[in-house]
Write a structure and sequence with these properties.
Elements: H1 2-31, H2 38-166, H3 171-258, H4 263-306, H5 328-346, H6 350-363, H7 369-381, H8 386-399, H9 404-431
Helix pairs in contact: 2-3, 2-4, 3-4, 5-6, 6-7, 7-8, 7-9, 8-9
Length: 432
């Protein structure tokens, strides 16, 4: 109770001074002289100022509303552009994935081609071994035939000798000698027939091996045809992808021109497009390389089909150029030049053939000893060019010292000169 009384007293003490102050201010305000004309003008000015500020605030509000709507529209446009760019990025990612798949396919094709090259090299070595065996068998047959011919000549000589003795002996002795000679000749003929039978069996075996090789070569040709068809389909698919990528690049250029506000994203897209172009160019180069290797393999198989048995140190065929350790394109060029020169040589156009062989040698002077040998043969057939033929033989031997045809040509060219020098020495001694 005491507390409530104290609070009431305190409240009265606070309110009483405020009441006196209000009365004093009212009295002082009533006592001041106030002009009735000035008070409405000040209110009007304040009202006008407030109205002007209100109008300015309304205009500012409208401007802010317009700017807000414009910002909202710009945000919507930016969102739409971002969605379109994301869609293009997804398309490019899909194209990148497809290009990676194509690159893997090309890598697999390269591995297959390398495996085929190794298989062809193995077949070529095996064919060379079979050819060497055939050559050795042929040489053995030739040696036996020469031996049989020699034995026949001996028999003929002995028969002639016996005929000469018949005139000096009696008829009975002559008949006995002739009977013994006939028995020997029959034995020799029996042995010769047995040798001929063995040779016939060897020839039959060689023919069967040759037929088997031809069948395997035909199977390889069929596989090559299938690979060529697959490569054509791959080339068509590559062309379609290239067209699609060109269209995509054009669309990306248009998007870059329209979207100046998103330069950073467009720059990334341009870099991605450039990377795709480089990868596509690399893939095209690898496809061209694979096509070139396929052509080289096809040509190599064609040459293997036509390839006779040869030894790089004794053969004079154009196919021997395949043993040169030079690029495949250069080997094809040298084989073509060798065949052209031989066509002129075989048609007795020896001078033109010598010119063609010279061009073939100059095209690869560090390896083409076959052209040097044939140039020596052509020069040998021409009158007064024996020294030039000897120079060509020496050039062939400088490249391959073990080349037997060039060695034989050199011996043949040097033999007349040696005999001529010997005759001149004998004449000089006689005159002395």
């Amino acid at each position: 109770m005491f507390r409530k009384t104290a609070l009431v007293i305190l409240l009265v003490m606070c309110l009483v001074p405020c009441a006196f102050a209000d009365e004093t201010e009212a009295v002082s305000a009533d006592t001041l002289p106030v002009s009735q004309d000035e008070q409405p003008d000040e209110m009007t000015l304040r009202e006008n100022a407030l109205n002007q500020k209100a109008a300015e605030l309304d205009a500012l509000a409208e401007e802010l509303a317009g700017r807000e709507a414009k910002l909202i529209q710009q945000e919507k446009d930016s969102a739409a552009k971002a969605r379109s760019i994301n869609a293009e990025s997804r398309k490019i990612s899909g194209i990148s994935t497809s290009l990676l798949g194509r690159e893997n396919q090309m890598t697999k094709r390269e591995l297959d081609l390398k495996a085929r090259e190794a298989e062809l090299a193995r077949r070529e070595m095996k064919f060379a071994e079979e050819s060497q065996r055939f050559t050795e068998a042929s040489s053995a047959l030739a040696g036996r035939e020469a031996d049989l011919a020699k034995r026949e000549a001996d028999l003929a000589a002995r028969e002639a000798e016996l005929n000469a003795k018949i005139s000096a002996k009696e008829a009975a002795d002559n008949l006995t000698a002739r009977e013994a000679d006939l028995v020997k000749r029959e034995a020799a003929l029996t042995e010769r027939e047995a040798t001929g039978n063995r040779l016939t069996a060897w020839e039959t075996e060689l023919q069967s091996k040759d037929a088997a090789l031809k069948a395997r070569e035909e199977a390889v040709a069929a596989r090559e045809s299938a690979v060529s068809d697959a490569e054509k389909k791959l080339a068509e698919s590559t062309e379609k992808v290239s067209t699609h990528e060109a269209e995509l690049a054009r669309k990306e250029a248009d998007l870059t021109a329209r979207e100046s506000e998103l330069e950073a994203n467009n720059k990334k897209l341009t870099e991605a497009t450039a990377s795709l172009g480089e990868r596509d160019t690399a893939l095209m180069n690898r496809e061209a390389e694979a096509t070139r290797k396929s052509a080289e393999l096809a040509e190599l198989e064609t040459l293997i089909k036509e390839l006779p048995a040869f030894d790089p140190n004794s053969s004079t065929e154009a196919a021997m150029i395949l043993t040169y350790k030079i690029p495949a394109e250069k080997r094809r060029e040298l084989i073509a030049m060798q065949r052209e020169a031989y066509s002129r040589y075989s048609s007795n156009r020896v001078t033109q053939a010598l010119e063609e062989y010279t061009k073939a040698f100059e095209a690869e002077p560090s390896a083409n000893y076959l052209a040097a040998y044939w140039a020596g043969l052509a020069a040998e057939r021409l009158r007064g060019r024996r020294d030039e033929a000897l120079e060509w033989a020496n050039k062939a031997l400088e490249i391959n010292p073990d080349y037997r045809p060039a060695q034989e040509l050199k011996r043949r060219l040097e033999a007349p000169a040696r005999s001529t020098n010997t005759q001149q020495r004998r004449r000089t001694t006689t005159s002395r």
